[in-house]
Amino acid sequence: MAWQGSTRKSRLPTNWASLRRRVLRRDKGVCQMPFSDGRICGAEATDVDHIVPGGDHSMANLRALCSWCHARKSSSEGGAAAALTRVRIDRPKPTHPALED
Ligand SMILES: [Zn+2]
């Protein structure tokens, strides 16, 4: 079993496989991630996402996502706190010594 050693399986309901299929069918296998301009991603969905992370496995809280959007969302959830402490380094590129006057 691929999920062995992970806590993920225990957090998902026992009927997750059929729930997941229902969500993908409802969303027509298309990624539902909204962009800032109101359009949705529209790529082929391979994942099912909890819109609000946690224990709500209702259809209203589930949506189909492509793996890219899902990975981006998951990493922003997990890395939100870390991102606040991260400092953006915006230095000009050093010029090669041979090109300096
Ligand atoms: Zn997407």
Question: Describe it for me?
Answer:
- This protein is mostly helical and 101 residues long.
- It has 3 helices and 2 strands, in the order H-H-E-E-H.
- Strands 1-2 form a two-stranded antiparallel ribbon.
What structural category characterises the helix and strand content? Answer: mainly alpha
Strand order within the widest sheet? 1-2
Low-confidence segments, given as residue ranges, are none
Number of strands: 2
Bound molecules: zinc ion
What is the residue-mean pLDDT, rounded to a whole number? 83
Share of helix, binned: 25-40%
Largest sheet: 2 strands, antiparallel
- Write the element-wise H/E pattern from the N-terminal end onward: HHEEH
Distance, first to last CA: 63 Å
Percentage of β-strand residues: 5-15%
Report Rg: 20 Å
Shape summary:
elongated
> What is the count of helical runs?
3
Which descriptors would you attach to this protein?
mainly alpha, 3 helices, 34% helix, 101 residues, binds zinc ion, two-stranded antiparallel sheet
